[in-house]
Fold each of these.
Amino acid sequence: MATTTEQSANVTKTSPILARMTGRKDEEARIRVLANIEALGLNDNLLELETQGFTVLKGVLSDDQIDRAKSAILRRVERNTGKQIDPERATTDDFHGMNYQHYLIFDDPVFPEILLEEKPLALMYYLLGESCVLSSMGSHFRGPGGMPLPAHADGVSVGMTEVSLVANCNYALTPYSREAGAVVLVPGSHRKNRQPTPHENWMAGHETIPEVMARNPAPEELDAIEWTAPAGAVTMDIDPGDAVVWHGNSWHAGWRREIPGVRINLASYFCRPHLSTQERRGDDRYPEVFERFANDPRIAQLMGENIFNGWREEGPDFTGGKTAPSGLFD
């Protein structure tokens, strides 16, 4: 039997337009995507992604990347809060609960590097096709106290089908555990094609999150509430440098942090190119980033430079410089 690599080599060469019309373009991409997953040793991860809706990639980031990303995020937080944050000893007075640090992609050279990590990207191409784009890159920076992150599915905002329209890659930059505020996922929830109900979410005794919030509890009371995780949820007990990749329909949530210090992650959120990105693409204020990766076409694609739609008076680009997918994988 021919391997996927041999199949790719045997694909009939056709013109770009004809390849698109006949589905050959998508078939060529499917073969490339699956061959790359096999070459990277990710077939078991692919099976987990299909059956559970998520998978863990161990040791994706180097110690140097972890340190640089953590430092860059801490600089952002300290600039925003005017406080110095000790990542090991911070209290609720230093940073209370969770706050999302947005639009990190241009904050430090380490972030475009992480965007191009080949193993998470290989799985993103499987979920969203080779034409996928970065929707946003930020950090769910979490200090002690506050609320757990409610369980939800990202895909509901764009329409939920069996096919993933959005997907997430969550890097741990500090240790993940229940006490440290780890992310949790519900296996198989990506096949439900809906959001969890209030009673399938975090519970405080017999109270749902909406019922608790309707009481408008004081911060001290909120910090003291004991929460029960969504039924079936699995806590991601992972190490710095590990990454969790999940289907856009998968229910995910996060524990409240119960110990001193901060939990730092990096969330790379991707989407198919016909969707609006959370962050505005086409930002030309940082030409040095694109110059740095001038020989790597993946950056331009992921940053939305090649999206076919979005023309003005110049009209559509039929030169091939901007493209649209014809199927699930291209």
Note: The domain at 12-302 is CATH 2.60.120.620 (Jelly Rolls).
Amino acid sequence: MTKDKEKSPSELRMDLVSNDWVVIATGRARRPETFAQQERIKDDVSSRKCPFCKLKFSGKLVISHPNDFPAFTPADDLNERKQGPNRIMNGVGYHEVIITADHKKQIAHFSSGEVKIVIDLYQKRYLELMNKKFIKYISIFHNHGREAGSSIAHPHSQLLAIPVVDPDLRSSLDGAEAFYRSQGKCVYCTMIEWELQDKKRIIYENEKFLVVCPFAAQVSFEVRVYPKEHQPYFEKMTEEEKEFFADAMQKGLNKLYKGLKDPAYNFYFHTAPCDGGNYDQYHWHLNILPKTNIWAGFELGAGIEISTIEPEKATEFLREQ
């Protein structure tokens, strides 16, 4: 038997929400610890010229501040128009930066109590902007590391309140609605029920939240945090729920930090839009995607991600961190 024939076949796994396929390339599989050995672009951690360090925190752990280079700005008119067959509107909305005080201390190093304070501000700003004129969707995300798109080393998240629903979330909303029409239940609740039964991909859980490496992971070591109870809207979390969410989020980020030796990553919330629609079948969650691989021709051309470690092995590794 040749060496190539001895290799395990790769797996195609379907995402239950989007019906998109991902490749779990077991034939090119890597050991978990090799991801921690990847070379990383080191950020300049000097605070001397940091624009965020010049802001007044007044003893607060975290503050919100208008982005100095906003992608969206407030206005009284969308000025919707056509240009030939194409539609255009002005980029009306709000773009804020949510900044933690310590220049070097990232969220992965926070206590769960400190993480809750950050979540409190996410929720507060969301609630204050969601009813503004033209706002249909609010995106909250965090880029850590140069490879993940962070241009300033000082830890910060961003919040964009915009007049359209982003395509990635729209795909998730449509997938959740289609599953409900077909099966009569929430697709995310179905996945959570299976994960709790199968237990192969659970990194951590508490009374109200589940931290998992998803079955059809987009990237190696992808982590998701789900509320166990069905909830469409992130912004409706209670104080008690935020405490449990902070615990789960802190564990997920800290395990990635320890296991992969401070990888660059992006995290973002997927929550039902604030456009007045009926999204009762949706289930909000947090996605954490470490930069463990680079999209090349196949991923870009086919739109199919390739992961070089099985989510089950990634889970086993992260549990031990």
Note: Residues 3-319 form a domain with the HIT family, subunit A fold (CATH 3.30.428.10).
